[in-house]
Amino acid sequence: MTTATANASRWSRFRESFLWYSFKRDKVAIVSFVVFVLIAAAAFLAPLLAPHDPYDLATINIMNSELPPVWMDGSDPSFPLGTDAQGRDLLSTILYGTRVSLLIGFGAVILQAALGILFGLLAGYLGGRVDSILMRIADVQLSFSTLMVAIIVGAVFKASFGNLMFGEIAIYLLILIIGVAEWPQIARTVRASVLAEKKKEYVDAAKVMGYRTNRIMFRHILPNTLSPIFVIGTVQIANAIISEAALSFLGLGMPETQPSLGSLIKSGFDYIQSGSWWITLIPGLVLVVLVLVINLLGDWLRDVMNPRLYKG
Amino acid sequence: MALLEVKNLDVRFAVRGGDLKALRKISFSLDKGERLGLVGESGAGKSVAAFSILNLIARPGYIAGGEILFEGKNLAAMSDRELRKIRGNRIAMIFQDPMMTLNPVLTIGNQMVEALKAHRRISTRAARQIALDRLKQVQIPSPDKRLDQYPHELSGGMRQRVIIAIALLLDPEIIIADEPTTALDVTIQAEIMALLLELCEQRNVALMLITHDLGVVSQVTQNMLVMYAGRIIEQGPTKEIINDAQHPYTQGLINALPQMGEPGRRLYQIPGAMPSLNRIPSGCPFHPRCQFATDLCKQEMPEYVTSGNVDVACHEVRKLIEEEQQQREMTS
């Protein structure tokens, strides 16, 4: 009963909030959000929606390879977007691949956020030596490009585990690599807002109340720094998806048996000259649209949540 | 034994090129239920004094010497863990700006419950009940509604009431109020001051009121301290000091108060400004601004002399007192 009323008031509070108000007024944000939700829903419901199971090798027939989409001559109506070089249904493979890409994008950002928030809070709030050490580590980390680190780590793992084993752990490995490589972005943002927040009187008031340092950091300061974290987190999801696609395109990401959007693009790339453009172009289009709507949503969030703090 | 006794407290700020002396040999005491005023211009060290009582001076500040005895235990030498049991629980503090003191992202109720839970083993339900009681005591309209509201939904006066309610939450023995009404408009100021006074009297809570408003000090407090450049220059019963200030600085502060009923009169100003901590004058720190200053004032820091019940640190006052004594001896 009480939880029901609490939920109701939370919902009505949301309905009255500036966030909802500005969302309603921003056509770009609405369209982006709808497109994103459609893509995400289709991806996560892939086992239900997809006409074929691209992971099931028994259903794949090599005779069906490189069939064009339905609107072209020589197509097969049971493969609406055509097939790839191995005879997998392209639509199903894209749905499953989008799922993999989104999983890696969100997973990597959750890892980034966990590391970035923890280190950013510690550096910003404790200051002094802790701050210098953590931020120097972040600087060093940023001076390597994500791709370079990923290529080295990926190559080492691939060499030591072999292709088969690598295929099984690839998704976790990618999350780990991209997450660890990009945490300083979030740590820096968090640190900057913590530095601003800790000078405010409510922090003094919390100290005067006799709260522990942990409590002040996580319960009092952290919620006040969430808006920039959301903004940068959204943009970072798009970045992580692109990083993953780039790695897969280079052959260091998801294996072709379990393709992400990037590895699909790569697998089609070899056939683009022989006229089978759809294997590369259609997943590429999906990737571009996905990254674009996430970035547009991030832009909108940035405008709404903190016009001053975060500049791309 | 006094509830709080501060003895020769020295607070310094370690900066490049040496220590800045923010508080110099501060001594005073506070009894249970007593109301003590702490006045002085901006930069006199009032807020530093308040924070150092809770041993909460931020780096680079540190307590360089002296004792802060709360119920006989020295807060300056206590571990952080023991200090946390006292902060908020036994000694509470109210800040100047009610807009900034409450956490903007937590509801009033959550903040109050959290304060209770930090110091007592108590269920959320019981804590909310206590919070509601306190909100009723500070006379907030529809207190049950306020518990689920965020600070930005309340007016300045209401927020300061909430802050007083939070300060009273754990039944502290001492409340340190650092300019509690400065950020409010005049009518609300009077209401909040009256409320604070009433609650402190009711519960026998000692109040340390930091302000530069001598009007409030004279109405509310029993004793007062006047600070200048980190030093107490005059201390004693409020009535005696207000009616017959000894130190030229205190006299200046009192003269600087705007008077009603004399339209057109220029307001009095103490010439000059409070020296910054890295350029405190030699001898009596007030001498460059003092109309009675002599060569002695430039060289030597005055010791305290007692006149009536008031302690004053001023060479000229000492001279006057000595002359008076001589005259008395001559006539007798």
Summarize model confidence as the mean pLDDT of chain A: 83
Helix content, binned percent of chain B: 25-40%
DSSP strand count of chain B = 12
Low-confidence blocks of residues of chain B:
none
Q: Give the number of domains of chain A.
A: 1
The count of β-strands of chain A is 0
* Helix/strand structural class of chain B: alpha/beta
Strand order of the largest sheet of chain B: 6-7-8-3-9-10-12-11
Q: Can you summarize the main beta sheet of chain B?
A: 8 strands, mixed
The coarse overall form of chain A would be: globular
Mean pLDDT of chain B: 89
Separation of the first and last Cα atoms of chain A: 45 Å
Low-confidence stretches of chain A: none
User: What separation lies between the terminal Cα atoms of chain B?
Assistant: 39 Å
Shape of chain B: globular
Which class best fits the helix and strand makeup of chain A?
A: mainly alpha
Order of helices and strands of chain B: EEEHEEHEHHHHHEHEHEEHHHEEH
- Name of the CATH architecture of chain A: Orthogonal Bundle
Key structural traits:
heterodimer, A: 312 residues, mainly alpha, MetI-like fold, 73% helix, B: 332 residues, alpha/beta, 8-stranded mixed β-sheet, 4-stranded antiparallel β-sheet, 13 helices, globular
